[in-house]
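Hello Y.,

Per our agreement to keep a running log of every chain we model this quarter, I'm adding this entry. I've kept the format consistent with earlier entries: sequence first, then predicted structure.
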Amino acid sequence: MQHWWINMATAMTSFVIAALIGVVLVPFLKKIHFGQTILEIGPKWHKSKQGTPIMGGFMFIISSIITTIIGYIIYREKYLDLTSPETTTNALRLLACIAFSVLFSAIGFADDYIKAIKKQNLGLNAKQKMLFQFFLSAAFLLILYLLGDTSTEIDLIFVKLDFGLFYYPIMLLFMIFLTNAVNLTDGVDGLCGTVTLVAMLALTIICSFMKLYEISFFAIAIAGGCLGFLLWNLNPAKCFMGDTGSMFLGGAFVAIGLATHGHMLMVIVGIVYVCEALSVVLQVISFKTTGKRIFKMSPIHHHFEMIGYGEYKIVITFSLVGLVAGVIAVLMII
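Predicted structure for the entry above:
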């Protein structure tokens, strides 16, 4: 595949840009006192993170958008037939993925801004978030439909089930679940960034095999941007991505995954996200029905903290799980 050099250049450039943005962004966020407020219900040792700057997600948001556009322009000039309708359709699909991710990030930004101003770890309420997420998800599904993805089949890899009109409400719930699952993964220094780095590498390969080259540039740009961000976010974190960053990553993961129409592949590649979200669901159900908790604390990464895992050990363990899952997903489409 001739375009691989563009993928590599995009990833490296995104890494450098994200890392350099941190040089300016972190001191600026400290100056305006946009710091994290730590809840009392969290692990006691997290109190030392009080005041750590949030909204660090702007590092990979800016770097991934810039480098995706540059990578696409180079690819378009060198390899595409500009008279082909498919070229326009693929460009619009890429634009839709970027726009969806940015708009989800805007929800996270509003949340972070309210937290920073009120100095409380409470931003938008759940109903407000769900309402915005519902409309954005519905709009994205509509755009994919208008761009030719009219299939109402859910791809379970070994079998495809046609749900007809029920496909769309199922997908709305699926999208909202996964975007929030990524958000829940952001609770330990370096965890969400590292897990997403691994997931985006897998999605890059999957998109390439499916000949969704334009989308692959966005995936690899996010991977590079996450790596640059991790220079500032690994324990002890100098900056958190905030909901600004985690909602962008959640939106991007869902958008890229749906662009492939590989629903089960998304679950496999994002298995860490899925486990994080399910741990919260199971904890709530168990406590409300029996009065007992399954985990010492949810999401599940906090459970591992409570039983003695250090933050680096959690990041490495969860990322390795994601890596194995990503390899399995790639092998399934080869």
